[in-house]
């Protein structure tokens, strides 16, 4: 039975790198018939942001990545919020102290600074608390048992540090990167328990992965270096035989491939890098999300699945169910994945083609209300069907199709001036007059009458068609003009043709 977890820290809005990690964990759990667990890693009190946990939970729900166990669902290994498990970490840290795999350290910040200074003076560029200095420091290795107990009784703040033996190789069999080797001499005696009584990420993460019976860890590559300490912890606890497998995901890169996509890049490049919009008073942050940009959650999932993975076929459109079917961790890429916003828009446009109109209608009504657009006189469903192939985001509907909802057209003067001449104007006037007699006012009927008149006039299609379109929409691009005319109805269509007929006085 596989058990995979997504273990975010609620330190702010979750960026899409985090969501991709959640997605891959989810896909592998579902694919293998295992469980997907949400664990909130909130032991760093200094970085805790109220509302961030809720944001993470809402984002997963919006995307349909529903955990089997987690702070909301509960489960056999509850609680799933690390701040509620501090006693467990404390016990485990003490267990390591007892077995000699860890020790208690009382060094003050000043003493630690002095130690670093001493090492720097000796020419050591990255001074660290390790085998070379631990014998000179104030800890349970250098103090007597009585002294240690007295300090603890006197409430002298202390940390618990992992005792790292130098000179050992640590081999990690990463499923994406292959064999990664670390030398324990390079590692510091990592703090496991902090002076505030909270565990560090390393201790809590390993203890929980073990207790929650996690079989596979999939996380971002920034955690690869920490894995060396994690392996040492599994060894120290005697859990090495049930240690999970590790897969470290490649970075998501900026669109130009230059470095990691950061949380600030969304604002810089004008695209979303978070799943949902959020405002936090606590960190004075207001962000946009794929939701507020008008993306379909299924399209976001599809897009993210391909950021660092591919199915090995030409097929690109996959529902979440289909992704579960085809997902194969072996096909996760080693190299960074470049964020391509146009590709995100393309995925979304594909999903828009298949949306159920009932859902669309509800959202369009909401957009219309928000923007004070009156839709009561318009056959919105028919307009939607007409514009659907041109939409990248549902949100663009009232922008692209604005001419159905107002008579105040924004004319593209430059393009119109290029085409307009008095003969064309006269033809538009004639067209307007002829259309009054068409019954029913269908695209087909309009096109028959229009084509006849155009042919008789001798005016080139390349001149008159852009003008017909501009009469109705203001611009020279858009869907079929006869469909537009039919949806606008004869009164508006005629009015707009007549207006364009006298363009010089308009423009
Ligand atoms: N709490 C870590 C994070 O914020 C978890 C890393 C891991 O999955 O081990 O990403």
Automatic annotation (TrEMBL):
- What keywords were assigned to this record? Aminoacyl-tRNA synthetase, ATP-binding, Cytoplasm, Ligase, Nucleotide-binding, Protein biosynthesis
Q: Which domain of life is it from?
A: Bacteria
Localization (cell): Cytoplasm
By its UniProt entry, which InterPro entries does this protein fall under? aa-tRNA-synth_I_cd-bd (IPR045462), aa-tRNA-synth_I_codon-bd_sub2 (IPR020751), aa-tRNA-synth_I_CS (IPR001412), aa_tRNA-synth_I_cd-bd_sf (IPR008925), Glu-tRNA-ligase_bac/mito (IPR004527), Glu/Gln-tRNA-synth (IPR000924), Glu/Gln-tRNA-synth_Ib_cat-dom (IPR020058), Glu_tRNA_lig_a-bdl (IPR020061)
Question: Motif 'HIGH' region in this chain: where?
Answer: 8-18
**Which catalysed reactions does the entry list for this protein?**
tRNA(Glu) + L-glutamate + ATP = L-glutamyl-tRNA(Glu) + AMP + diphosphate
Organism, scientific name: Candidatus Opimibacter skivensis
Residue ranges of domain Glutamyl/glutaminyl-tRNA synthetase class Ib catalytic in the record? 3-343
Q: Name one GO cellular component term.
A: cytosol
Q: Which SUPFAM superfamilies match?
A: An anticodon-binding domain of class I aminoacyl-tRNA synthetases, Nucleotidylyl transferase
NCBIfam families assigned to the protein according to its UniProt record, in alphabetical order: gltX_bact
Q: How does it assemble?
A: Monomer.
Lineage here is: Bacteria, Pseudomonadati, Bacteroidota, Saprospiria, Saprospirales
Major enzyme class = ligase
Record motif 'KMSKS' region, residues: 260-264
Read off the PROSITE patterns from this record: AA_TRNA_LIGASE_I
Q: Which GO terms describe its biological process?
A: glutamyl-tRNA aminoacylation
Question: Where is this protein primarily located?
Answer: cytoplasm
Write down the Pfam families for this protein, in alphabetical order.
Anticodon_2, tRNA-synt_1c
What's the protein called, per UniProt? Glutamate--tRNA ligase
Could you tell me which residue ranges the Aminoacyl-tRNA synthetase class I anticodon-binding domain spans? 364-497
């Amino acid at each position: 039975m596989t058990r995979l977890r997504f273990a975010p820290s609620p330190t702010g809005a979750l960026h899409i790198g985090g969501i991709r990690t959640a997605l891959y964990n989810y896909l592998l759990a579902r694919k293998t018939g295992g469980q997907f667990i949400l664990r909130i890693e909130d032991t760093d009190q200094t970085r805790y942001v109220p509302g961030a946990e809720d944001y993470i939970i809402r984002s997963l729900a919006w995307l349909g990545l529903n955990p089997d166990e987690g702070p909301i669902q509960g489960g056999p290994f509850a609680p799933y919020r690390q701040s509620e498990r501090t006693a467990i970490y404390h016990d485990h840290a003490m267990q390591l102290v007892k077995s000699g795999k860890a020790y208690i350290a009382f060094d003050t910040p000043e003493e630690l600074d002095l130690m670093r200074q001493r090492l720097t003076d000796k020419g050591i560029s990255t001074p660290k608390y390790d085998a070379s200095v631990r014998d000179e420091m104030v800890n349970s290795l250098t103090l007597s048992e009585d002294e240690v107990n007295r300090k603890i009784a006197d409430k002298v703040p202390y940390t618990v540090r992992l005792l790292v033996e130098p000179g050992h190789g640590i081999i990690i069999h990463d499923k994406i990167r292959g064999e990664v080797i670390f030398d324990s001499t390079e590692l510091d005696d990592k703090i496991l328990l902090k002076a505030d009584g909270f565990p560090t990420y390393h201790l809590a993460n390993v203890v929980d992965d073990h207790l929650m019976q996690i079989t596979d860890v999939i996380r971002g590559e920034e955690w690869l270096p920490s894995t060396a300490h994690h392996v040492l912890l599994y060894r120290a606890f005697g859990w090495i035989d049930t240690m999970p497998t590790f897969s470290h995901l490649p970075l998501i890169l900026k669109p130009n491939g230059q470095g990691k996509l950061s949380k600030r890049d969304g604002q810089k490049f004008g695209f979303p890098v978070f799943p949902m919009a959020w405002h936090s008073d606590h960190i004075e942050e207001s962000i946009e999300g794929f939701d507020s940009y008008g993306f379909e959650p299924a399209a976001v999932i599809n897009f993210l699945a391909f950021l660092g993975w591919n199915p090995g076929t030409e097929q690109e459109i996959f529902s979440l169910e289909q992704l579960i079917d085809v997902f194969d961790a072996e096909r996760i890429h080693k190299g960074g994945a470049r964020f391509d916003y146009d590709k995100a828009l393309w995925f979304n446009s594909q999903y828009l083609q298949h949306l159920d109109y009932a859902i669309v209608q509800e959202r369009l009504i909401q957009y219309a209300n928000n923007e004070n657009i009156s839709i009561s006189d318009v056959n919105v469903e028919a307009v939607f069907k007409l514009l659907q192939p041109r939409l990248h985001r549902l949100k663009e509907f009232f922008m692209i199709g604005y001419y159905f909802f107002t008579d105040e057209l924004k004319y593209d003067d430059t393009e119109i001036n290029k085409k307009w001449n008095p003969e064309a104007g006269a033809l538009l006037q004639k067209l307007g007059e002829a259309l009054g007699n068409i019954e029913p006012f269908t695209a087909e009927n309009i096109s028959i009458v229009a084509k006849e008149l155009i042919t008789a006039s001798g005016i080139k299609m390349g001149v008159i068609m852009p003008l017909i379109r501009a009469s109705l929409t203001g611009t020279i691009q858009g869907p079929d003009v006869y469909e537009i005319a039919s949806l606008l109805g004869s009164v508006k269509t005629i009015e707009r043709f007549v207006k364009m007929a006298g363009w010089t006085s308009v423009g």
